[in-house]
TrEMBL record:
<protein>
    <recommendedName>
        <fullName>DUF4235 domain-containing protein</fullName>
    </recommendedName>
</protein>
<keyword id="KW-1133">Transmembrane helix</keyword>
<feature type="transmembrane region" description="Helical">
    <location>
        <begin position="54"/>
        <end position="74"/>
    </location>
</feature>
<feature type="transmembrane region" description="Helical">
    <location>
        <begin position="12"/>
        <end position="34"/>
    </location>
</feature>
<keyword id="KW-0812">Transmembrane</keyword>
<keyword id="KW-0472">Membrane</keyword>
Length: 220
């Protein structure tokens, strides 16, 4: 029986789309516009920091929605993850990429806050920036890499999400389940059909019925 998970899938997909799109737009649009405004480096940092600070709450909500939807879909598809060959591997890869994107996003906010405080016109912010464990030069250098790392990692998650969609096709589910079911027979010394053939050749009806059942076959 088919089961719909429209709400969970919507949270998962919309959250991921906002996460990827916002990070890419920020790297190209916000940072690019700040550099073209003229003035010194601190002036550009002040403009870019203002844009990223405004986006941060929305980005956090998008990430939260994606994680909630992803956890719900994982629970709803736990049987496929366990029984359909290939789904477990792609799910593990997606979890690793998601964790890496989360770490990169969190760290980019930490170093971005350093730049934001250092570029602020408020003397108290400048004092707070001086107490920050990361120097301004390090923060700017790390941000130049992280601004591309986050969209790259989330793009990888999007690719694996597309792969999961392909793996949900009925023919892919049948093929994956058959391959997973055949794996123990292959490890035991051959494919399911070869095991059936050997059992028949040696006149072992009891063994034949057992192998037929495991291979999903019926009849003589």
């Amino acid at each position: 029986m088919s089961q719909r998970n429209t709400v969970l899938r919507s949270l998962h997909d919309i959250g991921l789309a906002a996460w990827f799109g916002g990070s890419l737009m920020g790297a190209i649009g916000v940072n690019g516009a700040a550099r073209k405004m003229g003035g010194d480096e601190m002036f550009a940092s002040r403009i870019a920091s203002a844009g990223w600070a405004a986006w941060t709450p929305v980005n956090a909500a998008a990430i939260g929605a994606h994680l909630i939807g992803g956890a719900g879909l994982l629970g709803a598809n736990s049987a496929r993850v366990a029984n359909q060959r290939g789904v477990g591997a792609s799910t593990a890869a997606k979890a690793v990429l998601t964790a890496a994107a989360l770490a990169a996003t969190a760290y980019s906010r930490v170093v971005g806050k350093k730049v934001e405080l250092a570029a602020s016109l408020d003397p108290e912010d400048a004092e707070t920036a001086a107490d920050h464990p990361i120097t301004l030069e390090q923060a700017q250098r790390h941000l130049s890499l992280l601004q591309w790392a986050v969209p790259a990692l989330t793009a990888g998650v999007l690719v694996l999400n597309a792969l999961h969609g392909e793996q949900q096709r009925p023919e892919q589910q049948r093929l994956g389940a058959l391959r997973r079911a055949a794996s123990p027979l292959v490890m035991a010394g051959g494919t399911g059909l070869a095991a059936v053939r050997r059992a028949r050749e040696h006149g072992m009806p009891g063994r034949r019925r057992e192998v037929d059942a495991r291979a999903g076959l019926s009849g003589d």
